[in-house]
Amino acid sequence: MFYKYGRPPFFASKTVGFAFLGVLFFILIPFVSLSEAAPTGNLAYAVNGFDENLGRFDWNLYTTAIKGTKDFRAIPLNIKGMYPSWGPNGDILYFIQRDAGHSNVYSVNPENPKNKKLITPSAGTYRFLSVSPNGKKLAFNGWTIDQFPQDNQIWVLDIDSGEMEVMTAVVHMGWPFSFWGMSWSPNSKQIAFSLQRPGWLDHLYILDVETKEIELLTELHKDFYPVWAPDGQRILFLRWNREFDTFCTIDVETKTIETLFDVDKATGYWADWSPGGDYMVYSRWGSIYLYEFATDETEAIVEVGGTSSVFVITWLRDAEILPVEPQEKLVTTWGNLKQGN
Fold it and tell me: Do residues 233 and 186 make contact, with C-beta atoms less than 8 angstroms apart?
């Protein structure tokens, strides 16, 4: 960031000049510091790779600490699962694990990944897990083992009581539909989600948790994976196009859409905001990228390598570095990349 300093008039005294520059210097320091501040926190994400024990490909959970360093590492938790979502304090990581044809929501302390806890009272087919910012509720979509795919709806689970409540009543019209992502608002009162509609379109909606009223955000497009910004004013999402996909943001109040950049088809699967909303991370095949809104620059920060792919990234706000020792070294690169590469 560059600043231009105006020269004082030639008749100004040196004392006044130095005083003015001194005041200006102290005023500008915070802005310079903010612009140069590195993002912090911890990432959790699912990596698709070959499981030797199962003899097939499966999803496994990884974390990466971001603490003002470029030495980022993909650290395996040695837990199979998808849709990781941080609890607000960073001492709990929620995720969905599928076994014997059914799935459940579990929680685990990342410092002791072996002690996982079952959360859902009933098994089923669940996807797109999201923890409310106040840490009291979980949101996900799916159906229980006593239901059919046509009964696919959004559920909210109270973490303290363990009770699950159906929040939507979408009419299936004889064919199973799909949800494609959901995210809590910062005040824990609303949920943004994507729902497939007739004509193979996917629209974005906002659900009021208290009234269960639903507001339409986008239409006539295929819009996926909404993620609410920390300021509560914007929602990040991925828009499908015929030749490529595009990351966009939408203003919740005005519904104004701003396009960010394009990514290869079916590779920019998921994204999340930084704590201050000035960065975002997203996945592309087996890599995680960091995008800075102010500079419009993109850099690769983690590469899992091989034929693995990364899906569903959640960014924990300003947590301590996880004391989990890495069990394998993975390539980490930082390079200037062109948008859309």
Answer: no
